TrEMBL record:
Residues 13-348 form the Enoyl reductase (ER) domain. It comes from the Eukaryota. Belongs to the zinc-containing alcohol dehydrogenase family. Quinone oxidoreductase subfamily. PANTHER family: ENOYL-[ACYL-CARRIER-PROTEIN] REDUCTASE, MITOCHONDRIAL. It comes from Botryobasidium botryosum (strain FD-172 SS1). GO terms for cellular component: mitochondrion. This is enoyl-[acyl-carrier-protein] reductase. It catalyses: a 2,3-saturated acyl-[ACP] + NADP(+) = a (2E)-enoyl-[ACP] + NADPH + H(+). It is an enzyme of class 1 (oxidoreductase). GO terms for biological process: fatty acid biosynthetic process. Keywords: Fatty acid biosynthesis, Fatty acid metabolism, Lipid biosynthesis, Lipid metabolism, Mitochondrion, NADP, Oxidoreductase, Transit peptide. The keyword Lipid biosynthesis applies. Its EC number is 1.3.1.104.
Length: 348
């Protein structure tokens, strides 16, 4: 019978210093348009850390009812516990994910508006559902919205073992697209390469291999000279400059992450002579600029791929938080440390 809790912060900063767990009072019965939710699983995504650090453009709303704190967490899976009188799209027992950003999912209970959630189609695992609203749609939209690709075309991506990268590999395979995947070297690199190949990766290279002179020739052999029209950038920095060199004429480079924290620098000649277009993609902007039915359709499409066994949950580790507020606060800090240390290879 542990109390309901939330992971909160009152000022932005280093998560290990500003986050703490605190008990929440029981939720009152929902107002006519609202739902009470029990949160089942909440991932730690890199952007969550940036939000807590205060360096991300979206912020959770402040909670005067809890003494002016923010509740952390953007993505998550919850079960509907109680619904207001005029709610008709979900019933208690249904699973939902958030369509409102920064809903405060690092909590065991939530009160949200009916329009702020999307009902999860049946047939998904808890982990698939809990991680379906940020990374898989980012992968699908980037593959669809920028370059016109046909079966057999190649795309290239870095950060290929990230959760987004794993979704890119699988969705590409489902769409009969081929992928060249770049990852950081590590002692067990052959294990990582086989893991990504088993998801459907066509080729996997480390950034060191990318920098080798022979790589361009190898890539030309793989693609039989077919031009690569799309590059997906999760990392930035010099490795992305090199990756962009693999793109052909009229290609599109789509940047969605900056994991190396290094700026992206591209030779001007790529724009002049190869007609490169460089874009940024932000899933939050997509959600904001599309209707609820577009959002539902996007998630339904991904759920179909998951149910068909074409899109698996990312590699993950589930951490269960238990004990006193102090113990839970410590467990949260440890869980965040695992994810942000790099090369953990698992969504926490
Ligand atoms: P994960 O936590 O699953 O993976 C993080 C990835 O970043 C791993 O591949 C890791 O590689 C790599 N990485 C970490 N540090 C570095 C570094 N210094 N240099 C190179 N690679 C590094 O992340 P997600 O898939 O959840 O997110 C990946 C990125 O995409 C994040 O930047 C996130 O904010 C962004 N994102 C953006 C979205 C958008 O709408 N624009 C939507 C979703 C995600 P390794 O195993 O070697 O440590």
């Amino acid at each position: 019978n542990s109390p309901h809790r939330a992971v909160v912060y009152s000022s932005t900063g280093n998560p290990s210093q500003v986050l703490s767990a605190r008990a929440l009072p029981p939720l009152p019965p929902p107002s006519p348009t609202h739902l009470n939710l029990r949160v089942l699983l909440s991932p730690i995504n890199p952007a969550d850390i940036n939000v807590i650090e205060g360096v991300y453009p979206s912020k959770p709303s402040i909670r005067p009812d809890l003494g002016n704190v923010f509740i952390a967490g953007n993505e998550g899976l919850a079960e509907v516990v109680d619904v207001g009188d005029s709610v008709n799209s979900v019933v208690p027992g249904d699973w939902v994910v958030m369509s409102k950003p920064q809903a405060g999912t690092w909590a065991s209970q939530l009160s949200v508006g009916e329009g702020d959630v999307i009902k999860v189609p049946q047939g998904l695992s808890e982990v698939q559902a809990a991680t379906m609203s940020v990374n898989p749609p980012t992968a699908l939209c980037m593959l669809r919205d920028f370059a016109s690709l046909s079966p057999g075309d190649y795309i290239v991506q870095n950060g290929a073992n990230s959760a987004v990268g794993q979704a890119v590999i699988q969705i590409s395979a489902a769409l009969s697209l081929k992928t060249i995947n770049l990852v950081r070297d590590r002692p067990d690199i052959s294990e990582l390469k086989s893991k990504l190949s088993s998801l459907g990766a066509t080729h996997v290279l480390t950034y060191d291999e990318l920098a080798e002179k022979s790589t361009k020739t190898r890539v030309k052999e793989w693609t039989s000279g077919r031009s690569i029209k799309l590059g997906l950038n999760c990392v930035g920095g010099r490795d992305t400059t090199l990756m962009t060199g693999l793109l052909g004429h009229d290609a599109h480079l789509v940047s969605y992450g900056a994991m190396s924290k290094s700026p992206l620098s591209l030779p001007t000649s790529y724009f002049i002579f190869k007609n490169l277009t460089s874009h940024g993609f932000w899933m939050s902007r997509w959600y904001d600029s599309h209707s609820k039915s577009d959002r539902e359709q996007l998630l339904a499409e991904l759920a179909d791929m998951m149910i068909a066994g074409k899109l698996h949950a990312p590699e993950h580790e589930i951490v269960t938080l238990r004990g006193s507020d102090e113990q839970v606060s410590e467990q949260v800090r440890e869980a965040i440390g695992k994810g942000s240390a790099g090369r953990h290879g698992k969504k926490v």
